[in-house]
Amino acid sequence: MNDDSSEMSQIGLLKQKLQATKVALEEINDDRNSKLIALTQFITQMSLACKGQNLELDNKLAKLRVNMGNFEHLDEVLPELPEIERLLKSQYHHVMGKLEQGRSGLTNFSRELLRIKHIPEKLSREISIFRQELSKPFHSLWDYIPKVEQLISYYEQALLQNVQDEPLIILPIHRQLSYELAQLISDIEFPKAQREQVLRLKDILASDSLQVETLLEAYQTILRLLLENIAREKATSQEFLQTLNDALTSVRDIVSESFSQTQHSQQLKQQLNGEINNQVNNVLNSLNEIDEISQLKQKVTEHLAEIQNRLARKEALEQREMALLQKSVNTLRKELADLSAETLSYRERLCEQQKINQLDSLTQLPNRAALDERMDQEFRRFQHNNSTLWVAVADIDHFKQINDSFGHSTGDKTLQVIAMALKNSLRDTEFVARYGGEEFVLLIPDVSANDIAQLLNRVREKIKNIPFKFKNQRITVTLSIGAAQVLNGEHILDTFERADAALYKAKHESRDRVIID
Ligand SMILES: Nc1nc2c(ncn2[C@@H]2O[C@H](COP(=O)(O)OP(=O)(O)OP(=O)(O)O)[C@@H](O)[C@H]2O)c(=O)[nH]1
């Protein structure tokens, strides 16, 4: 009786241990799931961060993200990782390939330079040495930029030599080039730090005393500024791609390592489970085969000791597995946090850049690209709501006279003041963009045909009343405005044409007036 109850309690103990093992296994599964969730978040962040760099890479990461969502198919995800790593590397190699093309371009250009007539011997020797240096490959953009600058300086020296040989006089073509360069740099959005320099250049290009040398210098400066900007952008992208590549490699290593460890402990556990089952069968066999109670007790005790031993090994194995899982989850979390921070700062830069690209650098009003986008939006809203929408084109009258009489930078300041006044005279739902030169486009929704003339005349009067004072002279600056309402069935670009034609009429009917088509 006593033996029976001890046997029962041992079997009870055994059941408890088996139950504890089951719970431990479930905990491991939970931990594994939390690791996979962290990994999925990581891949999501990374896929968003990489977006736009390379379409194939975008698709691969999106696919990877979907597959990661299904925990049961982790082993299907692993073969994708080397391909993604390959794409990141190939993007890097693409940049390096471009550098190589740049190097061969410089080599060709320097050869052309040597063919220029009357090139001084000293300069020709320097260019030859420079060409020898060009035979070494570039490792980064920072190898490339100084070479471009150096070559521009050789070019300048060669040209100046020719100018000294045969003095160049400023021809109409030079004036035309200078006008076109000024227009071109008005359309390019330069970073804040470069704007002062660009404005000075515009003054020089508009000046009556323009020289061929100054025109060349202006080209050289603009080229240098653009190269600096390109180099800065490329360096940032390269750095970011490298960080992503490193992070991905380390994630791949962690996942592979933890996957092979999990497989290994799975095998060990299966082996231990088999041994425990054998021992339980042994206990059952002993119960069936041995009648003598003391012999039976001894056998069962031996089998139970074996079972205990296997359970202890299994528990130690599970603890080690859990510790390893915890460690890789922590490492993944850290990688994720680092990459999130990196992605955030990169995204902020992109947003900043996007904002800059939509603003006119002189007036800080939305530019033509922003106008196109807003026209689209307003037109869709108009079609959807069946509301009213007006397009107005405003142009400063006799603006050329301001430039001619008081200088280009006074003209620029006038444009800035008028832009600000236009913006301030509109409601939040209304929109004004600098269309180009001294021309602005307004989009005005939800105003009736009765009210539009009054609204636009108020804007016109507001500009007229700005107390401009140039060289102690009180100047009145006026606007001519043409406007048209978007008609049902009409495209907004056709409305724009009608508004522009109305402006043309306003200009020819004495200016300083509003004409509604
Ligand atoms: N200062 C400055 N001038 C500019 C800018 N963009 C265009 N302009 C000048 O604006 C002037 C426009 O002249 P026109 O097209 O003849 O027009 P207008 O003198 O305003 O005469 P109407 O429009 O007929 O009243 C030109 O002299 C351009 O050089 C700019 O960004 N800054």
From TrEMBL:
UniProt feature coiled coil, ranges: 290-349
SUPFAM superfamilies: Nucleotide cyclase
UniProt EC number: 2.7.7.65
Keyword Transport: no
Classification via InterPro entries: DGCcoil, Diguanylate_Cyclase, GGDEF_dom, Nucleotide_cyclase, Rev_trsase/Diguanyl_cyclase
Keyword tags: Coiled coil, Nucleotidyltransferase, Transferase
CDD domains membership: GGDEF
UniProt GO molecular function: diguanylate cyclase activity
Keyword match Coiled coil: yes
Protein name: diguanylate cyclase
